[in-house]
C-alpha cells in the first residue's frame, strides 16, 4: 500500500493487510503480515469471516493500492470540447467555444447523452472524488448529481450561477437563479437520505455523503454584486455546503474584475466582501494572487484548486504552488476540463510537475541553492489525494489509508497484460522495487493500469470491473 502521510512523506506498507468494514470504512491496517499462519492469525483477530464469498483479496507482484484520486475542479458540461479550442485565452475562449457548448445543456436530453460518459470516464481514470461545475440549467445539473450517485462516485456538484457578461441564453435573473439553486441543493441533499445512520460526528456525516451540492458563482466576471450577495446569503443559510468559483486565472480577467468592482481592493476581496470566501471555498487557479490576497485566503482557510493543464492550454500562466503551500494555503489538483485537455489526475500530476519545474528553472539564473525546489513525487501524490481531501474538508474521511477513513482506493497493476504494449514501460524493473514501480506509474502509467477503482469500499470501475460488468452494459 502506498499513501501520503504528510506533504513530503509517503509511506510504503509492504506485506500489509487492510480490513474494510461493511460501511466501507478502513477497520484495520496491519503491517508485516508474512506467511499463511500470520495471515490467518490477523484475519481471526479481526473476526474476518470468509464463508464462500471472496472477501479476502491478495495482491500479486507488481500490484499496489493507492488512495483514490481527487479532482477538485472540472466542468462536466465541457467534456465534449476537451482537447480542442486551444488557440484562445480565457475570455475569448469562453465566448467562442465554451458558452455555446454549455447552452446545449438547456436540453435535459443532451445532459443525458454526455454526463454518464463523463462520470464513467473520470472513474475509469481513477477519480474517486470529482468536484463538478455543471451549467446554469437546473434539470441537467440535477441529472449530473444523480448519475454520479448511481455510478457510485463521490461527487461535489454545482449548478452554475451567472447573470452578466455572457450570451443571453446563459444569463439568469438573480431571484429565479437563487430559487433554482436552492431547489438544486435540496434535491442533491435528498439523493442520499440515509447518509448518516451509522455516524455521529459532524465531519463523518459529511464524509459519508456520496454526493454534495456546491454553491457555484461562475466567477466575478459573470456575476453581479447582487448575485454574489444573494449567494453569500445562501452560503450562510446552508453553512455546511461548499462554495466553488474561479479566482485570478488570467491577467485580462483580473483587470476586468478590477473594472467591474472598482472600489474593491482586489479579486480575492470581491468574494470575501460578498461572504463567499471561507473554509468551504474551493477557488480554481489562483495564479496572480498578491501577497495580501494570499494572506486573506490563508486567514479565511479557503483553498486553491491547481489546474496546470488548463493553465498551459488556455495560456493563463504558471501557478507557483510551492509559494501557496509555503503560505499554508490548502491546495488540491484539478483537471479543469475543457480549459484543461485531459480528464485524468495522473495528467494533472505530470503537468503540476512540469509547472513547478518551469518555476524552479526561472527562479534563479545561476545559483542552484537559490532555486525553488520543484514538486517532488511524494508532494505530487499528496496533492492528488490528501491535498484534495483537505481542500474539501474531508481530511478525516478520505485521502490516505488511515484507519477510520473510508476506503476510496485504486488497485494499480503494473504487470498483468491487459493490453501488452503499454506495459512494456514497466519491464526492466524488479517487481519488488515498489518505489520505482510507483514512480513509473505516476509518470508513464495510465488507466489500463487501474485494475479496480473503489469508492467507500465498493468496486465501481477499473479494468476488472468493466470486464465483469460487460454483459450488463
Ligand atoms: N472562468 C470562468 N469560467 C471558466 C471556465 O469555464 N473555465 C475556466 N478555465 N475558467 C473559467
Ligand atoms: Fe474552470
TrEMBL record:
SUPFAM superfamilies xref list: Composite domain of metallo-dependent hydrolases, Metallo-dependent hydrolases
Catalytic activity: guanine + H2O + H(+) = xanthine + NH4(+)
Family indicated by similarity: Belongs to the metallo-dependent hydrolases superfamily. ATZ/TRZ family.
Protein's job: Catalyzes the hydrolytic deamination of guanine, producing xanthine and ammonia.
Statement: the UniProt record of this protein carries the keyword Glycoprotein: no
Enzyme Commission number(s) of this protein: 3.5.4.3
Name this protein carries in UniProt: Guanine deaminase
Superkingdom per UniProt: Eukaryota
One GO CC term, this protein: cytosol
Cofactor(s) the protein needs: Zn(2+)
UniProt GO MF annotations: guanine deaminase activity; zinc ion binding
GO biological processes: guanine catabolic process
UniProt cross-references to InterPro entries, sorted A to Z: Amidohydro-rel, Guanine_deaminase, Metal-dep_hydrolase_composite, Metal_Hydrolase, Metallo-dep_hydrolases
Boundaries of every Amidohydrolase-related domain copy: 64-460
Keyword S-adenosyl-L-methionine in record: no
Keywords: Hydrolase, Metal-binding, Zinc
Record's cofactor remark: Binds 1 zinc ion per subunit.
Pathway noted in the entry: Purine metabolism; guanine degradation; xanthine from guanine: step 1/1
Amino acid at each position: 500500500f502506498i499513501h501520503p502521510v504528510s506533504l513530503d512523506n509517503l509511506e510504503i506498507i509492504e506485506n500489509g493487510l487492510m480490513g474494510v468494514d461493511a460501511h466501507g470504512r478502513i477497520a484495520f491496517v496491519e503491517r508485516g503480515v508474512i506467511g499463511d499462519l500470520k495471515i490467518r492469525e490477523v484475519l481471526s483477530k479481526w473476526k474476518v469471516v470468509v464463508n464462500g464469498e471472496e472477501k479476502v483479496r491478495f495482491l500479486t507482484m507488481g500490484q499496489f493500492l493507492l488512495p483514490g484520486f481527487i479532482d477538485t475542479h472540472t466542468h462536466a458540461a465541457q467534456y465534449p470540447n476537451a482537447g480542442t479550442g486551444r488557440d484562445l485565452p480565457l475570455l475569448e475562449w469562453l465566448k467562442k467555444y465554451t458558452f455555446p457548448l454549455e447552452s446545449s445543456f438547456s436540453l435535459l436530453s443532451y445532459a443525458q447523452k454526455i454526463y454518464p460518459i463523463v462520470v464513467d470516464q473520470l472513474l475509469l481514470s481513477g477519480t474517486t472524488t470529482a468536484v463538478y461545475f455543471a451549467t446554469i440549467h437546473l434539470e441537467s445539473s440535477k441529472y449530473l448529481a444523480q448519475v454520479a450517485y448511481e455510478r457510485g462516485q463521490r461527487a461535489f456538484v454545482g449548478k452554475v450561477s451567472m447573470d452578466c457578461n455572457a450570451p443571453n441564453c446563459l444569463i439568469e435573473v438573480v431571484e429565479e437563479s437563487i430559487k433554482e439553486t436552492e431547489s438544486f441543493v435540496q434535491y442533491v441533499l435528498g439523493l442520499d437520505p440515509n447518509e448518516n445512520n451509522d455516524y455521529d460526528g459532524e465531519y463523518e456525516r459529511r464524509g459519508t455523503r456520496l454526493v454534495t451540492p456546491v454553491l457555484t458563482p461562475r466567477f466575478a466576471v459573470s456575476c453581479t454584486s447582487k448575485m454574489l450577495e444573494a449567494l453569500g446569503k445562501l452560503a450562510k443559510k446552508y453553512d455546511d455546503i461548499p462554495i466553488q468559483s474561479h479566482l485570478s486565472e488570467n491577467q485580462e480577467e483580473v483587470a476586468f474584475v478590477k473594472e467591474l468592482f472598482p472600489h474593491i481592493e482586489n479579486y480575492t476581496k470581491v468574494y470575501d466582501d460578498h461572504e463567499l470566501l471561507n473554509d468551504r471555498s474551493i477557488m480554481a487557479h489562483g495564479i496572480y494572487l498578491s501577497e495580501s490576497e494570499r494572506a486573506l485566503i490563508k486567514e479565511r482557510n479557503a483553498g486553491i484548486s491547481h489546474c496546470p493543464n488548463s493553465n498551459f492550454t488556455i495560456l493563463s500562466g504558471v501557478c507557483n504552488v510551492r509559494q501557496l503551500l509555503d503560505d499554508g494555503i490548502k491546495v488540491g489538483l484539478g483537471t479543469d476540463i475543457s480549459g484543461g485537455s485531459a480528464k485524468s489526475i495522473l495528467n494533472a500530476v505530470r503537468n503540476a510537475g512540469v509547472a513547478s519545474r518551469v518555476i524552479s528553472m526561472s527562479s534563479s539564473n545561476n545559483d542552484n541553492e537559490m532555486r525553488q525546489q520543484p514538486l517532488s513525487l511524494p508532494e505530487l501524490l499528496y496533492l492528488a489525494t490528501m491535498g484534495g481531501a483537505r481542500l474539501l474538508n474531508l481530511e478525516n474521511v478520505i485521502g490516505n489509508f488511515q484507519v477510520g477513513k473510508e476506503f476510496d482506493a485504486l488497485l494499480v497493476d503494473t504487470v498483468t497484460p491487459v493490453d501488452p504494449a503499454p506495459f512494456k514501460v514497466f519491464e526492466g524493473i524488479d517487481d519488488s522495487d515498489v518505489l520505482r514501480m510507483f514512480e513509473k506509474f505516476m509518470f508513464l502509467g495510465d488507466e489500463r493500469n487501474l485494475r479496480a477503482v473503489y469508492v467507500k469500499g465498493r468496486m465501481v470501475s477499473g479494468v476488472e470491473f468493466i470486464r465483469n460488468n460487460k454483459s450488463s452494459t
